[in-house]
Amino acid sequence: MIVLLSLTSTERMSPLTNLMKQRFKSIHFSHYEGTSNPGTLFNGVKAQLAIFIANNSVKNNNYLTTKYLRFYSTERDELFKSTLKYIKYDKEYFNLVPKVSNSMGLSILNKIINYENTQEIRTFEGGEFNLYYRNMGNFFWKLAFKNEPYYSLNGLMKSSSTVGKLNFINEDIRNFVICLINSSTFFFYWNSLSDCYHLSKKEILRVPIPFEIDFTEFNTLSRELMESLLRNSFRQNENLKNGDLRTYDKYYPQHSKMIIDKIDSKLKHVFSFTKDELEFVKNYEINYRLGNK
């Protein structure tokens, strides 16, 4: 059956997926980008989709999943022939079906979410050190800033509805979370356990981090990244249908990939990734993220 991606990727739908598991011993879940980023599953239909195949042909529970599948229109004919790869999963994360397709992806998720001797980022919330993040769109990059991104309507400064705000108790934590959100590590985590469009406050604050972190290099990297993002930004004017003029800064984080790779190399030690897991994260969806295809 073809359904909206929200079935497997939003917590409000977990009662339904739990009911499905009570009814069926075997379910194959697959997940598809379908909003032209970069392609659609069906011509004329712009919607993120999931497909599930369920039966009771096995004795023991057998639940399988795929990664979030992106594809260009020229790749669509091969999608079900060579790209579709399932992996069995034994548990869900935050009542969500994980969108991964190999054991390495599951290992990385486990290390991010179940790391020992940690506390959730939410425990550091509440203070005078602000962080601003893009809460929707930006399909291939997650963005976070120290200063609120520029946005105006008819020349009047405003806060954009696509920007969320967090406050932290100290600068070290704020800078670390900025590095984390902009990292490829976080992009993998978000892509695997979200609706792949919105970035919610909860998705950020529930990430666990170790009690002991050397923040020195994250402070340096956050400064370098902010400078690079600003240097590679462009102030965009957009005429709206109602006659209003919207002006905002457009960012190109792919030009900051070298710094983001340095951040991921430091996060390797935070989450105890192996060398192969670090390379997997750095190169995750790289062709689509950098537009190399």
Task: Provide an overview of this structure.
The chain has 2 domains: 2-101, no CATH class; 118-290, no CATH class. The protein has helices at 6-9, 14-23, 79-83, 103-113, 171-182, 184-192, 201-205, 216-231, 257-271, 275-282, 286-290; strands at residues 2-4, 26-32, 49-55, 62-65, 68-69, 87-88, 118-120, 125-134, 144-145, 151-153, 156-157, 163-168, 208-210, 234-239, 245-250. It is globular, with a radius of gyration of 20 Å. With 293 residues, the protein is an alpha+beta fold. It has 11 helices and 15 strands.
Index terms:
2 domains, 23% strand, four-stranded antiparallel sheet, alpha+beta, 293 residues, six-stranded mixed sheet, globular
Compact overview of the structure:
This protein is an alpha+beta fold and 293 residues long. The chain contains eleven helices and 15 strands.
Whole-number count of domains: 2
Share of residues in helices:
25-40%
Rg over CA atoms, rounded to whole Å, is: 20 Å
Number of helices: 11
Structural class: alpha+beta
How far from one another are the termini? 30 Å
Order of helices and strands: EHHEEEEHEHEEEEEEHHHEHEEHHH
* Poorly predicted sequence stretches spanning 5 or more consecutive residues: none
Q: Give the overall shape, derived from the CA principal axes.
A: globular
The major β-sheet equals:
6 strands, mixed
